[in-house]
Amino acid sequence: MNRNQLVKQIQEKRSFLCVGLDTDLTKIPNHLKNHPNAIVAFNKAIIDATKDHCVSYKINTAFYEAMGLKGWAAMEETVQYIPDTHLKIADAKRGDIGNTSSQYAKAFFETLPFDAITVAPYMGEDSIRPFLEYEHKWTIVLGLTSNKGAADFELQSTGNQLLYQKVLQTVAQWGNPNNLMFVVGATQATELAIIRQIIPDHFLLVPGVGFQGGSLEEVSKYGLNQQCGLLVNASRAIIYASSGENFATEAKEIAQQYQTEMGQYLPM
Ligand SMILES: O=c1ccn([C@@H]2O[C@H](COP(=O)(O)O)[C@@H](O)[C@H]2O)c(=O)[nH]1
Q: Which residues form the Orotidine 5'-phosphate decarboxylase domain (predicted)?
């Protein structure tokens, strides 16, 4: 999916919501637990219920990898079920020496039909370059993450700027706003004004609203650009809105609430 297609989806739906499919067998409703393909059945119901209210789905691969072969199969079936109108993100946080990163890129962009993958920048340009070589695919680089540990390295000073700011400035030169995005946690909304000075045009993937307490209003105030430029992710707040048989209708309700609020903030 290219940038124009993504922006068109956002404009049509008046939503920049990304639903996170962090599906955990221990948390899905009891009536589904004995289903022979429980994770996929749950995910399909969530996708059917939320697809009119979001423009993207983010599969955090950890939840699937933890289940071994069955998990990979569930991930594959899930990503194939997501409509092509929606940006399909693998939240895999990969990155290694060049030839290994090439294999990661092949795994998520060719073997699996993801549009985007999250990548850690710590190993530098050659670890990210193989992902950027794919046309119409997105590399989403960790910038300023939502967790407390962001203070350990990302928020440390390196001369006249913070480490995460140096990452944004440097990595932005390796790609362009049509193939690169950055992760910025919603819990870091106050940094967004500075971030927009460094990377005014890039899309930002913003996790951390809902359970982690980030504010959609603050993120939108400081992070939106002329073409929206934001994908705000919520995982647990949507997929576990109810643990009963009504889980999908409750998930729809929460996704719709995010969509309505997002519509109020969108500039276009
Ligand atoms: O800085 C980061 C980077 C990634 N994540 C991931 O996003 C979701 C958030 O889930 P919620 O349930 O909405 O809190 C999850 O997959 C994280 O691994 C993040 O939270 N922060």
A: 16-251
Q: For the residues 164-179, what does the mean pLDDT come to? A: 98
Domain that holds residue 118: 3-265
Choose the catalytic residue: 93, 137, 148, 166: 93
Structure tokens at 235: 């995982």
Instruction: Identify the residue whose C-alpha is closest to ligand 1 atom 3.
Output: 145
> From the alpha carbon of 58, which atom of ligand 1 is closest?
16
Residue with CA nearest ligand 1 atom 9: 207
pLDDT in tens, 1-52: 999 999 999 999 999 999 999 999 999 999 998 999 999 999 999 999 999 9
Residue 124 is which amino acid?
Answer: G
Place of tokens 């276009």: 268
R_g (Cα) of the chain, nearest Å: 18
Is 70 an annotated catalytic residue? no
Pick the atom of ligand 1 nearest to 185's CA: 1
Burial 217-228 (b: 16+ CB within 10 A, else e): ebbbebbbbebb
User: 4, exposed or middle or buried, with CB in 10 Å at 0-12, 13-18, 19+?
Assistant: exposed
What are the pocket residues of ligand 1 if the criterion is a CB atom closer than 6 Å to any ligand atom?
20, 22, 60, 91, 145-147, 183, 185, 207-208, 210-212, 233-237
Q: What is the pLDDT of residues 118-167, one digit of tens each?
A: 999 999 999 999 999 999 999 999 999 999 999 999 999 999 999 999 99
Pocket test for ligand 1, best of 93, 235, 238, 239 (most atoms within 8 A of CB): 235
Site of tokens 């639903």: 19
User: ipTM score of the complex?
Assistant: 0.99
**CATH number of the domain to which 76 belongs:** 3.20.20.70
Question: How many structural domains are present in the chain?
Answer: 1
pLDDT at position 82, please?
98
